[in-house]
Amino acid sequence: MTDMKQIARLAGVSVGTISHVLNDTAKVSERLRKRVLDVVQATEYQPNELARGLRRDRTNILAMMIPDIANPFFPGVVRGAEDVAFANGYRLVLCNSDNDHAKEVLYLNALRTYLPAGLIMIPSSFDDLSAHTQSYRSAGSAVVCIDRVPRNWEGSSVIVDNVDGVYRATSYLIGLGHRHLAAITGPLHLTSAQDRLKGFKLALRHGGLKTTGNYMQQTTFDTAGGYAKTKEILHLLPRPTAIMACNDMIAFGALLAIREENLRCPEDISLIGFDGLDLTEITTPKLSSVYQSTYEIGATAVQLAIDGALDRNCQPRQVVLKTVLKIRESVAPPRAEHVARTSRKRTR
Amino acid sequence: MTDMKQIARLAGVSVGTISHVLNDTAKVSERLRKRVLDVVQATEYQPNELARGLRRDRTNILAMMIPDIANPFFPGVVRGAEDVAFANGYRLVLCNSDNDHAKEVLYLNALRTYLPAGLIMIPSSFDDLSAHTQSYRSAGSAVVCIDRVPRNWEGSSVIVDNVDGVYRATSYLIGLGHRHLAAITGPLHLTSAQDRLKGFKLALRHGGLKTTGNYMQQTTFDTAGGYAKTKEILHLLPRPTAIMACNDMIAFGALLAIREENLRCPEDISLIGFDGLDLTEITTPKLSSVYQSTYEIGATAVQLAIDGALDRNCQPRQVVLKTVLKIRESVAPPRAEHVARTSRKRTR
DNA sequence: TTGTAGGCGTTATCAG
DNA sequence: CTGATAACGCCTACAA
Question: Which residues have Cβ atoms closer than 7 angstroms to strand D?
Answer without folding.
Answer: A 12-17, 20, 26-29, 31-33, 51, 54-55, 57; B 1, 3-5, 15-16, 19-20, 22-23, 25-26, 47-48, 51-52, 54-56
